[in-house]
Structures are given as C-alpha cells and as structure tokens.
Amino acid sequence: MTRRRKIYEGKAKILYEGPEPGTIIQYFKDDATAFNAQKKGTINGKGVINNRISEHVFTRLAHIGIPTHFIRRLNMREQLVKQVEIVPIEVIVRNVAAGTLSKRLGIEEGTPLPHTLLEYCYKDDSLGDPLIAEEHIACFGWATQEEMQDISSMAIRVNDFMSGMFAGIGIRLVDFKLEFGRFFDGDFARIILADEISPDGCRLWDIETNEKLDKDRFRRDLGGEVEAYQEVARRLGLLPDEGSSEIMDLDAHRAKKSK
Ligand code: C5P
C-alpha cells in the first residue's frame, strides 16, 4: 500500500489526503473519549459500525437534498469525503432534555422540549468547546449570517428526517451534534454537512424502555456499548443477519449471496 499523508488525527477519526485533489479519506477509530478527552477508552469495532451508520445516514440525507461531504465508503473503516473548510462551530440539536442542557438548566433528563432547540458551541478542545450565542459567531466572524441561515435550516431538516428515521425503528432521537464545512466551487463557498453522524454524537433511546443506545453507555460507565452500537446498526438494517454481531461490508455480503 502506498503511504498516505496524514492530515489530522482527532479523537475518533484520522484524516488522510485523498486520491484526488479536493478529497479526504476519513478513517474511523475504535477510540472513545468523553468529557473533553478526560475519559479515554476503546469500544471494540466502533469504527466499523460508525463508518457504516454514518454512510447510511449521509446517503439518506443526500436523497432528501441535504448537501453532504460524503462521496463513498471505501472499506470497513474508511470513507472518501469532499475536502471542506470546517466551520468552527458544533451545532447541537435537541428534542428532549439530557446531558449538559439538563445539568445547566436543572431540567430532568427525558423531559420533552416544547420545540426543537438549536445550540452552538465553539469548536476548541483547549477551551472545552464552550457554549456560544449566535452573537459570538457574528462578532468573531466564525460564520456569516447567510451561512448561519443555511446551517440552522439544514440542522432542522436533518432533525426532522432523522427523528422519523429513528422513530421507525423504535428509537427516540434525543439530541445530536452536527458539523458543517465550506465546500469551495471556484471562489464560491457552499455550506455542506460534514464530519459523521453515529451513536458517538447522538443520544438514542429505545422508545419503549428508554434504554440508552449511544455513547452515554461509555460516558456513564453503563457497559454494553458494543452491543448498543450493534443494536442501532441492526435496526437500521446494516447487519447482514438477524442476531449477527458481525457488521459487514454489505456489498460484499450481497455479492456472496448472489453467487
Ligand atoms: O453533552 P451534551 O448534552 O451537550 O451533548 C449533546 C449532544 O451532542 C449529545 O448527543 C452528544 O453526543 C453530542 N456532542 C458531541 N460532541 C461534543 C459535544 C456534544 O457529539 N463535543
């Protein structure tokens, strides 16, 4: 294999230079962190599952007209994506109170919110990704007003679509995080959805039992994180056989079956 240039190594992913200019390879690791990397660990096979789940969600979002960085999955742990300039804002979309919202405002976890809440955090690990207001974004020029219009309306559309998608498989989408990037087409920059969508950055609760099927199992030492991630993949139809714990390259599986 030819040596690839590593561009960036994050907490859960590594980015390599892609095969063509303007492309990037996103490699999904099994590493898990929480509380701004104060807690570290591994979730066996997480990278493989998140690669598949994120591919699935991004592909379905593209079908409803959301522009995304996703081009195609390359293998079990890697996907090819468009190179973007990441907007230094984490967009948190909330439907039900949980996590830092519950802590900050003293609202019991699980309380449905009167309407979807969008929050913004400044992407800076050394500062612990602090919560910011739209005024900070405008004041410091992190995104323009037009870009924030695109970002907020896309976040709401993504939430509507994903809430329905997960409800259809018995999962409540409590909250999640999105990242956006600027994709340059000549001099013109367009906002597109970037990063990943997986149980690492979503709170997913079973609709009947409220069982947590996301990274809170790791954050809160609940155990069973591998099984929870697998359960989400299984319900999305991404595991080849009912009850199988093996997440597979579905294309290879189909090819094998048709032989
Ligand atoms: O911790 P908090 O309640 O603010 O998280 C809200 C949502 O955003 C959760 O689904 C969490 O997984 C996600 N999140 C994330 N990365 C961060 C902060 C939050 O994926 N840095």
Automatic annotation (TrEMBL):
<dbReference type="Pfam" id="PF01259">
    <property type="entry name" value="SAICAR_synt"/>
</dbReference>
<protein>
    <recommendedName>
        <fullName>Phosphoribosylaminoimidazole-succinocarboxamide synthase</fullName>
        <ecNumber>6.3.2.6</ecNumber>
    </recommendedName>
</protein>
<dbReference type="InterPro" id="IPR001636">
    <property type="entry name" value="SAICAR_synth"/>
</dbReference>
<dbReference type="GO" id="GO:0005829">
    <property type="term" value="C:cytosol"/>
</dbReference>
<keyword id="KW-0547">Nucleotide-binding</keyword>
<dbReference type="GO" id="GO:0009236">
    <property type="term" value="P:cobalamin biosynthetic process"/>
</dbReference>
<keyword id="KW-0658">Purine biosynthesis</keyword>
<dbReference type="GO" id="GO:0006189">
    <property type="term" value="P:'de novo' IMP biosynthetic process"/>
</dbReference>
<comment type="similarity">
    <text>Belongs to the SAICAR synthetase family.</text>
</comment>
<dbReference type="GO" id="GO:0004639">
    <property type="term" value="F:phosphoribosylaminoimidazolesuccinocarboxamide synthase activity"/>
</dbReference>
<dbReference type="InterPro" id="IPR033934">
    <property type="entry name" value="SAICAR_synt_PurC"/>
</dbReference>
<comment type="pathway">
    <text>Purine metabolism; IMP biosynthesis via de novo pathway; 5-amino-1-(5-phospho-D-ribosyl)imidazole-4-carboxamide from 5-amino-1-(5-phospho-D-ribosyl)imidazole-4-carboxylate: step 1/2.</text>
</comment>
<keyword id="KW-0067">ATP-binding</keyword>
<dbReference type="InterPro" id="IPR028923">
    <property type="entry name" value="SAICAR_synt/ADE2_N"/>
</dbReference>
<dbReference type="InterPro" id="IPR050089">
    <property type="entry name" value="SAICAR_synthetase"/>
</dbReference>
<dbReference type="GO" id="GO:0005524">
    <property type="term" value="F:ATP binding"/>
</dbReference>
<dbReference type="InterPro" id="IPR018236">
    <property type="entry name" value="SAICAR_synthetase_CS"/>
</dbReference>
<keyword id="KW-0436">Ligase</keyword>
<feature type="domain" description="SAICAR synthetase/ADE2 N-terminal">
    <location>
        <begin position="6"/>
        <end position="235"/>
    </location>
</feature>
